[in-house]
Amino acid sequence: MKNADLLLIEPKKDDFSNLIANTTAIKHYYSHVAILYVDHGNAYVIHAVPNRGVLKQSLDEFLSNLEKSKNRLVSSYYRY
User: Fold this and answer.
1) Cα gap 9→23, rounded to integer Å
2) How does DSSP classify residue 18?
3) What whole-number distance in Å separates Cα of residue 14 and Cα of residue 50?
4) Is the pLDDT of residue 43 over 90?
5) CA angle 51, 52, 56 (to 5 degrees)
6) Are 12 and 71 spatial neighbours (Cβ–Cβ below 8 Å)?
7) In the prediction, which pLDDT does 30 show?
8) Segment holding 43, helix H or strand E
9) Which helix (H) or strand (E) holds 53?
10) Fewer CB within 10 Å of terminal CB in the chain, N or C?
11) Is residue 24 scored above 70 in pLDDT?
12) Which residue has the higher pLDDT, 29 or 15?
């Protein structure tokens, strides 16, 4: 992954997430977008979380939290 890649996350099983996902369902089914930020070889993910605001997490922490919440990374878009 490279700096500024977009990470698309599948929706949780709640009405709000499904509403967002239904509007994006033409090519992919996702409800959350995060951006990858690489600084001196360290990868971070920046994304907004309800009730917590905008977060900057290490990529490992972000992926671990995805696994714990039983969500999954749907796709990533790479910048050219």
Assistant:
1) 14
2) H
3) 13
4) yes
5) 155
6) yes
7) 61
8) strand 42-49
9) strand 53-58
10) C
11) no
12) 15
- Percentage of the chain exceeding pLDDT 90: 24
For residues 80 and 5, the answer to whether their CB atoms sit within 8 Å is no
User: Pick from 39, 42, 45: which is nearest to 7 by CA?
Assistant: 45
Distance CA 72, CA 63 (A): 8
Q: What is the mean pLDDT of residues 6-34?
A: 64
Backbone φ and ψ for 50, nearest 5 degrees, come out as -55, 140
The pTM (predicted TM-score) of the whole model is 0.66
Provide DSSP, 55-75: EEEEHHHHHHHHHHTT--EEE
9: its two tokens: 């996350």
Q: Two tokens at 20?
A: 């967002």
* Burial class (CB within 10 angstroms; exposed 0-12, middle 13-18, buried 19+) of 45: buried
